[in-house]
Known about the structure:
By secondary structure, this protein is an alpha/beta fold. The chain is built from six helices and seven strands; from the N terminus they run βαβαβαβαααβββ. It has helices spanning about 10-25, 40-50, 75-80, 95-105, 110-120, 125-135, and strands at about 5, 30-35, 55-60, 85-90, 145-150, 160-165, 175-185.
Amino acid sequence: MVIYFKKSDEETTKTLLEHIFASALKRNIRDIVLPSTLGNVAKLAFETVPSSLRLVIVTHSVGFKKPDHDEFDPQVRKMYYGSRHAILTATHLFRGLDGAFYKSSGGTYPPQIFATALRLFGQGTKVAIEIAMMAADSGLVSVNDWIISAGGTGHGIDTAYILKTCHSSDLGTFKFGELLGIPSTLELTDS
């Protein structure tokens, strides 16, 4: 079942997390990859995740907003320390060295083209794909297993997919399984 959301907020995040966890349990999927900039999604997920599931939280890199600054809540990071879950703080796949050249001298580079294409399906889709590959590249999820990866549009999560991710060097092996939730701006009227 696909859930369509009209907004991205805490209520949407809670609803989608419930759907993600239920879908994972139903399909025997173990790993859930979630974005969390400040720690809000990570905290809510940690407090509600079933014991058979494992969370991989992907944060912004240190220096994402300003030099040497880590936006992620250190108290939430402590919650995860020593648990079965993982937190990944690393350079974002679509924002690495190419992103620095784009920022400083303009121009278009392949990672930005790919990210822009994914955003056609929503910002959350771009995030979900990006963090799934980051988790694979860091060895936190296997490219051989179905996982659930989520993304958002700025205030929590509003998009989620079941997928088999890939390493960033092997994009041809990436597989979509199922869409679980996504924002919709469609407004239907009775004819």
